[in-house]
Amino acid sequence: MENPDTSLSKYNLAFKGKVRNIYNYDDNKLLIYTSDRISAFDYVFNDEVKGKGLLLTKMAKFWFNKTRHIVSNHIANGDLDLPSNVRDNCMLVTKTKVLPIEAIVRGHLAGSAWNTYEATQKINGIPVTKEYKRYDKFDAPIFTPSTKAKLGDKDINIGMKEMQNLIGKELTNSIQKISIELFEFAYNFAKEKGVIIADTKFEFGLDSNNKLILIDEIFTPDCSRFWLYDKKLKKLNYDAFDKQFFRDYLIQNNWDNEQIIIPSNVKEKIISKYKTAYDLITNEI
Fold first, then answer.
1. CATH assignment, 4-94
2. Among 16, 74, 136, 224, which one has the highest count of C-beta atoms within 10 angstroms of its own C-beta?
3. Runs of H (alpha helix) within 67-196
């Protein structure tokens, strides 16, 4: 894909994240371009995965539209007069004051939560009395927030008290409630399509009226853990079809926090997994 810095040069680049470039569109709106960059373990690779940004954008737009009955989101109205090579990777959104929190919700015990639980019998610092096995479903989704680190730094898991110290008790309670509601809605929706959303993260901001709104991305393979679910047999396939495949590849190859050329077969597998998630959930197959 052509360099977005060229195609979107008439807009001022406000922020460049791990995957997204954010441009000032006008006084009240931002233009978010989702690139084909890929990150893992808070490290951004120079070698890109063609088509990844388009799939992430389509998935985010689908879920933003599907969940607007639960919480308002930052998607703004307006036609985008943009070059065709970048248009479909872009979202026009409302400017917000971004809250420094990643709202993580877990429905199953996996990933870093499993590693911590196995070592300490705790999840996010809270002792767990019930005995769980890896991938077990919790009795109810749990909320495990973290800080939203600056680019290059690592997010830090925090407790509810620390979250309240950062953004206040009222916002903390609202974000927890909305995050759980979003997760439960999407979990049930996706399960009917043959997908289990094991865990995910949300980001929130405040608009010009200090109204809490959902921002960034939602229920994409970059911010969620997806498993296949056979509805007839009621069985799960824990071979994740999200970014976990790439993390596992790096671990298996003793990656040492440095730039690499990602093999073409690995890129193809990543796109195949992302597309499977999109096709199943949206029924566009």
1. 3.30.200.20
2. 224
3. 84-87, 111-120, 160-167, 169-192
